[in-house]
Structures are given as C-alpha cells and as structure tokens.
Amino acid sequence: MRTIPVLSLLLALATPAQALELRGPTLAAASNLGQGFQGNMLSAALKLPVRDFRDAVYWDLVEQGAGLYRFEIDRTTYPDLLEPAGARMSLTVNNGHPAYEGGHTPLGPAAVRAFGAHAAQTVLRFPAIDAVEVGNEFNSANFVSGPLREDTLQARAEAYAALLASVSEQVRAVRPGVRIIGGGVHSIPTGYLGRLTALGAAAHMDALALHPYSTPIEHLARQIAVMRRDPALAEMPVEITEFGSQDPAAAPGVLVRSYCQMALAGVSRAVWYALNRRGDGYVPLIGPDLGVTPAGQAYRVVQGRFAGVAVEDISPDPFTYACRFGGVGVILWGAERTLEVAPGVRVLDPAGAAVAPPFRLSETEPLILTGDGPLVPGEDFTLAPQRIVADSYHQFPYPKAGADTSTVDGFRASAVSPNGRQALVTMPGQDRQGEPWTPYLGTPSDRSVRVLPESLLPGGSADFPVEIVQEFTAPEAMRLDLTGWIDPAERSVDGVRVTLLRDGVEIEAWQVSDRLDLDRRGIALAAGERLAVSVGPGGTARGDVTLYRLTLARAE
Questions:
Q1: Predicted TM-score of the model (pTM)
Q2: Which domains, ranges and CATH numbers included, belong to the chain?
Q3: Average pLDDT, integer, range 86-99
C-alpha cells in the first residue's frame, strides 16, 4: 500500500487542523438526568464506563425568585454524584424561564442577563461541571421559541451572540477555568457561523459545538476544514456535542467511522447521542434493561483504545479511509476489496469482537486492526489493487476561495444551460433561508442549483434546463464499468431527465421518476475522451432534489 495519493488531502487539511494536536477525542455521552433522574441509569453509565456527561440543570427548576436559586430535587442535584465517581459534565443552557418573557428564548437585556446568571450560579454550585454549552441547535426551528422563531437568520445570530456573551462573562467571573462551548449548531452551517463570528462571538467561546447530523461521515473532516477558512475559527477547538444513529445495526460502525474522521479534523471531544433511549429512535449506549448495547460496546472499545492517542491519516487512496492511532491500532474501511493481514495482527469489528478471515473492506462496517506496535501498510496489512478510478461521493470536492470544480479529480461537476457551462464553487451552508446547512457546490448567480455529496438539484425547466453534469476525462485508454443510481424525491413534480454522454454525444437517456440503477459494463474510452452523466429537470425543476451516486471502476 502507498500513502502518497492522500498527500493532497493532507495538505488541504494541514493549515487549520495541524495547528491543533491531532489525537483521539475525549468521548462523552448525552444524558438526560436533568429531565428525569434515574440512579440506576447513572450507575450503569459509570460502569460502562462513561466519565464525561452532557446534561442540563434547568433554569426554571432552580431560580425560585429574582436572583434566588435553590438546588433541592434530584433533577437539580445529580451533578453532586459525578465528582466522587471521577466523572465530569458539560452543562447545556438553552431553555427560558417563565418569569422572563413568558419562558420564551430571552431577547431583552434583563432576561439575557438572568440567563447568564443561572449558568454562573450552577457552575459555582457544582465543581463537576467543567464546561457550559450555550444553546442547543440554535440555528434550527426546534429549540427557540417566541418572536425569534420566525425571525431572520441575522436576528437569530444577534440573539445568540448576546446570550453567549452573557453566559461567558458571568461564568468566567465566578469560575474562570470553566470551558465556554459556543455555536450550539445543527449541522456545519458555515454561512450562519460566519454571521456569528462577524458579531465577535468567537471571543466569548473556548470551543465550538457542532451537531453534524446532515454531514456524511466521510465528509466530516472536509467540511470542518471548510468551516476553518473563517479566520476566527481557524484554530478554534471543536467539540461534536451530538452524533449518533437511528439504525441499531449500523450504530457501532457509525461511532467508529465518525471517531476516525473527528480525530483527523482536530475534534477534541465527541458526545454520543444518546446515553439512554429517548423515544426519538436514536440508538443508546445503555438499553432499557440497563445492559450495554452494541453501540455501547463500540464506545467502550474506542474509549479504551484510542482516546487521547495521537492519530495520523494513512488512507491509501480517495476511496479508502484509514486512521492509525499511535502504536495501538488502525481503523480501516472503504470501497469493497480484500484485505490480508500479517501473523500477529488481530482484526476486530466495531464492537470489539474478533472477525474471522477472509477479510473484506466495507463502506459502512469498519475494521479495527491491532498488533504489538504501529501497523505499517504493505507489511502488516495489504489491500487488493484498487479498481475504482472515480467516485462522486468519495471525491466530492470543496474548492477553496477563487477555485472551482474545473480541475478537480474524478468526476467534475458543472451546471450546463443553453447559456453554456459553468464550473461550481463552494457555497456557504445556511447562508440564507432554504439553503443546505452544510457547505455545498453551486453558483452565486443561481442559488437554486446545488450539488452535495449525496444529492443534487437541477434548475430551470424543459424550455430552459439547467442540468447538473458529472464528467470524467480518461487519462489514458481504458475500459470502465459505470455503476450507481439516480433517485429523484417523491415530491418531484415530473421527475428528472438523465442522459449518458461520451464527448457530449448522447449514448442513452431516461425520464426518471423512481430510482434508476446504472450498470453499464465495459465502456471503452480513449485517452482524453469524456464520459458524463447529466441530470436535468423534467417539465419543471420543482421538487427535483435527487439522490445520486456514480462510480467508475476498471472493467474486470
């Protein structure tokens, strides 16, 4: 195996991330002891072991009158139980209080001041609290109330900046060592975060909190790198204060793959959501029977082996992912192919169980390789030759400022209309209402057209189509297999038109309302010939959000 092909990716990440020490993040769990204290659940969590909790002590339960705080019931005193067990917690503050503005998200000076005072009084009361996370997905519709809920993104950013400053100033005044975690955002909304930093919010935080539910795992480090293009966030520590899965079978793999990508992104702390079942379908670490779930077993494996260990990217190509943690092991997954290991190398699944040979990579089920020292590709483990030459997901680009998709590797995405072809640029996530909450590819002149790693949206109409074209140029004569799918949303008014082209000449076309599976074998291309897949609107582009995946592999 060779590590040279990932040099360009490492350089792309190096400027911001390498300023931070790359190590396995601290693992934590999102508990809800503040909503309903369960002593047996806390005991089970400590036994797992969880030593870092994310939870709340709710303002409306402790402020009994103006400036009068009482911590009297188990829902407000449970942090006392953490310090004797060697555990700690981050305090989330987001909810209002009925005595201030009817319990809605605070906006006025008195309510904003009282919001910060509650946080300060709580950290003063509980030594186990070592961080305060301000806001919970404040950029979404679910966790704000009152007038702010229907206001603009700018108004929301201004309201949040005021709350963050209030908490930061008052908490730092009473316990300067407590970490202030700001942002509190769903996804990686680089546009919205830019509004916060323009307001000076970065000065009031020691770390930035992200909940990257809408970011595909393999794009986590890349999108955080885009976020770090903001000078105010270039070296800001990042904490992923919620990540999880709603698929019990997939959850252990999600945890392990995410952990690798977080480590390479310089994330310092990762909080699995959730500790226990919440009724929202997210897979817990501890089941209702107080037993450890497979996700909990993966948590235990990762925490015991990789937390705090120096990490490096040893991925051999854009289609394979490999994190080497010091001398303790490698997390490995990617496009399917066989894997051979040397004697003495142990292969485990995400939950820590031994895997029997023959070994094979998977895009969703990572393998954990361990040995008696640092594992060396090509010596301790070897992968079969890579057949893939281009993949729309694994090679999805995020061009830097001033660059576009015209020179990227693999498939080059562009927008093609009767006015011509336009290369795509990186657009900021949640820059305005109705746009994706992560960085994406688009054109500043037509914000309705977009491409993401797993979906795209063409524009225009049948009379003036704006098509998304994914084009591969053969570097040499080759025979290729094209596989993948095009799957327009059910809400699409009249489906999409899909065209397969060689050097701009149509080979085949489909009108697609349901999923189209692509499987064309043995396509012969001469050096310099171009193979493209175009997705355009049917009669109209209304509702045409389309899932897609395109892969080109050398024909067998």
A1: 0.95
A2: 21-311 (3.20.20.80), 390-554 (2.60.120)
A3: 97
